[in-house]
């Protein structure tokens, strides 16, 4: 069921087993996974089914430090999957490890704890089976074997094609759901805690036009993203003055993104070899793309973080070679090219450029580096003195990078350059700012819209905000879903891991619900713990997956 909360009477109290706050990848995945386990829940989405400028303005924040964070976030059903690029790859084993040269590193769980959930997340994200190395992907190119095993290694991305918009992909399943109630335009004002701040009693709701109400639940889950999860905890300060779950002062700290560097020039020596290394390819209807990064041994030897690099060789947009590529791509797909006469004219008037490109390939391009950021307690989300339209304090985003973050990008580029040069494939020319051994960064640096770490997972309350089950330390019934729980970021785009963690959390919440409330009116479970409603939800998930794959085939 999906309902506009404003159609309910003012002062409405909604009661449920589990209340999920946030309708993006984490919240939608969690809600449907709970339904398959026979656990009823309510999903609260601040926006509607389409963008709304008034609601989007609630994300406005002050900026202190690098990069703009406001434009990355979308506040309507589906969240930031509404402009997601579809990049998927898992975290590496070393990303979970405590590294002596990286302060505050190490997850309290390991890759084996996430592997079964990663495999399920592949389906949720519209991907092929879990395969991200040469052997499992089935790519055995000679170039990959020629790289020095103690320097760089190939990694692979899978692409959700077209990128799965979770609101669109799973909207119909949620409309028909008997176990999930979705409420749109339901802004959570704050969480009302019990007198000792060790439980959450209600979520106070408010809309821009003055409607108010509340949700009372046994368990609450924040799934609002890497900035808003921290903000809502800080705003919920009536009982615990410093903010809910913030006794140790960690809420909002350790804010991480992935610094992206796109001004590393690639001087191409062997175009065919380079294209074989980096070009996208398809397997069973799924697009893969290779990247290069420092292997675990190189990271240990050079005391750097993780990193990944992909190649880009852009055409000039009005060149004849760009027009020829567009014509060829459309014809290979069985489509008559749009504006075919115009494109053919550009090919004819730029024959020299076309012949040069065909004969010699691209002469240059750029290497796009995506680096891991070290956890930094001074990189953080705080509350501003400014107020939004609901009267709530806005956020102040303070993104800070370190010399280690910069050295990681520089050393990774050097390692990749050494191997590409040794093999006669290409050379690199680093930008001057990256050559310098300091912590200075260009104003144009981009963080990839990957907001992580602000409610980090830890074994003890002194070291983080949530425990290994993603439950807020010291608060019995409050959990957090999403990349804000990442203790470290790795280089991987976070969406696949966000979905895997949400599926893992669903298992825990279902077990807790049955342990604590065995007499709840859940649908009867079969031998695998899934009731009739769950089986119906599984079928709808499969149907939505098939529909999205068909859309992807059509778009391709």
How would you describe the overall organization of this protein?
By secondary structure, the protein is α/β, with parallel strands linked by helices. It has a domain at 1-61 and 74-125 and 160-258 and 449-556: FAD/NAD(P)-binding domain, CATH 3.50.50. It is built from 16 helices and 19 strands. It has helices at residues 25-36, 53-56, 111-124, 134-137, 142-145, 166-176, 228-235, 271-278, 296-302, 320-332, 340-349, 351-360, 403-422, 432-435, 495-516, 532-555; strands spanning 2-4, 12-21, 41-44, 61-65, 87-88, 152-159, 180-184, 187-193, 200-206, 212-222, 260-268, 281-283, 286-294, 307-312, 364-371, 380-387, 393-399, 426-429, 478-480. The longest helix has 24 residues, at 532-555. It starts with a strand and ends with a helix.
Question: What are the defining features of this structure?
Answer:
FAD/NAD(P)-binding domain; alpha/beta; 16 helices; 556 residues
Question: Outline of this structure?
Answer:
Helix content is 31%, strand content 21%. The protein contains 16 helices and 19 strands.
Question: How much of the polypeptide forms β-strand, as a percent range?
Answer: 15-25%
Just give the CATH class of the domain at 1-61 and 74-125 and 160-258 and 449-556: Alpha Beta
The shape, in one word, is: globular
> What Rg do the Cα atoms give?
24 Å
Q: Distance N terminus to C terminus?
A: 32 Å
The computed structural class is alpha/beta
CATH architecture classification of the domain at 1-61 and 74-125 and 160-258 and 449-556: 3-Layer(bba) Sandwich
* Poorly predicted residue ranges: 521-542, 547-556
Mean pLDDT: 87
Let me know the largest β-sheet.
8 strands, mixed
The CATH fourth-level homologous superfamily of the domain at 1-61 and 74-125 and 160-258 and 449-556: FAD/NAD(P)-binding domain
Number of helices: 16
């Amino acid at each position: 069921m999906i309902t506009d909360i404003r159609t309910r009477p003012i002062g409405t109290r909604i009661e449920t087993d589990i209340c999920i706050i946030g309708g993006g990848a984490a919240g939608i995945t969690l809600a449907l996974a709970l339904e398959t386990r026979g656990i009823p829940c309510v999903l609260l989405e601040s926006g509607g089914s389409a963008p709304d400028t008034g609601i989007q303005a609630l994300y406005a924040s002050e900026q202190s430090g690098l990069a703009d964070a406001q434009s990355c976030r979308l506040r309507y059903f589906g969240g930031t999957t509404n402009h997601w690029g579809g990049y998927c790859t898992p975290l590496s084993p070393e990303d979970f490890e405590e590294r002596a040269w990286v302060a505050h590193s190490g997850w309290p769980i390991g890759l084996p704890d996430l592997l079964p959930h990663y495999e399920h997340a592949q389906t949720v994200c519209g991907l092929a089976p879990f395969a991200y190395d040469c052997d499992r992907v089935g790519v055995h190119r000679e170039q990959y074997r020629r790289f020095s095993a103690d320097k760089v290694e190939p990694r692979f991305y899978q692409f959700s094609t077209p990128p799965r918009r979770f609101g669109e992909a799973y909207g119909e399943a949620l409309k028909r759901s008997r176990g999930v109630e979705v409420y749109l335009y339901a802004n959570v004002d704050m969480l009302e805690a019990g007198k000792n701040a060790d439980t959450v009693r209600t979520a106070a709701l408010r809309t821009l036009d003055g409607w108010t109400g509340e949700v009372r639940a046994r368990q609450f889950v924040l799934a609002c993203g890497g900035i808003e999860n921290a903000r809502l905890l800080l705003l919920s300060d009536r009982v615990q003055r410093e903010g809910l779950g913030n006794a140790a002062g960690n809420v909002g700290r350790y804010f991480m993104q992935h610094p992206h560097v796109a001004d590393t020039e690639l001087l191409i020596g062997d175009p065919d070899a380079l294209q074989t290394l980096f070009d996208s390819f398809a397997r069973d209807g799924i697009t893969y793309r290779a990247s290069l990064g420092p292997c675990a041994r190189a990271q240990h030897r050079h005391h750097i973080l993780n990193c990944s690099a992909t190649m880009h060789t852009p055409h000039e947009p009005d060149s004849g070679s760009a027009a020829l590529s567009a014509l060829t791509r459309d014809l290979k797909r069985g489509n008559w090219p749009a504006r075919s006469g115009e494109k053919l004219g550009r090919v004819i008037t730029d024959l020299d450029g076309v012949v040069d490109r065909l004969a010699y390939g691209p002469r240059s391009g750029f290497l796009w580096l995506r680096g891991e950021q070290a956890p930094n307690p001074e990189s953080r989300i705080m509350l501003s003195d400014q107020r939004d339209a609901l009267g709530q304090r806005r956020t102040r985003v303070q993104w800070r990078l370190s010399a280690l973050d910069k050295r990681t990008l520089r050393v990774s580029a050097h390692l990749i350059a050494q191997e590409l040069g040794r093999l006669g494939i290409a050379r690199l020319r680093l930008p001057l700012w990256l050559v310098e051994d300091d912590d200075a960064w260009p104003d144009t640096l981009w963080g990839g819209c990957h907001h992580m770490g602000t409610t980090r997972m830890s074994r003890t309350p002194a070291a983080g905000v949530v425990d290994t089950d993603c439950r807020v330390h010291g608060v019995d019934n409050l959990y957090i879903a999403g990349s804000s729980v990442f203790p470290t970021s790795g280089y991987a785009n976070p969406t696949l891991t966000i979905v895997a963690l949400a599926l893992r959390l669903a298992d825990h919440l279902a077990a807790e619900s049955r342990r604590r409330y065995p007499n709840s009116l859940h649908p009867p479970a079969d031998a695998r713990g899934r009731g009739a409603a769950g089986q119906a939800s599984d079928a709808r998930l499969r149907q939505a997956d098939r529909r999205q794959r068909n859309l992807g085939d059509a778009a391709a």
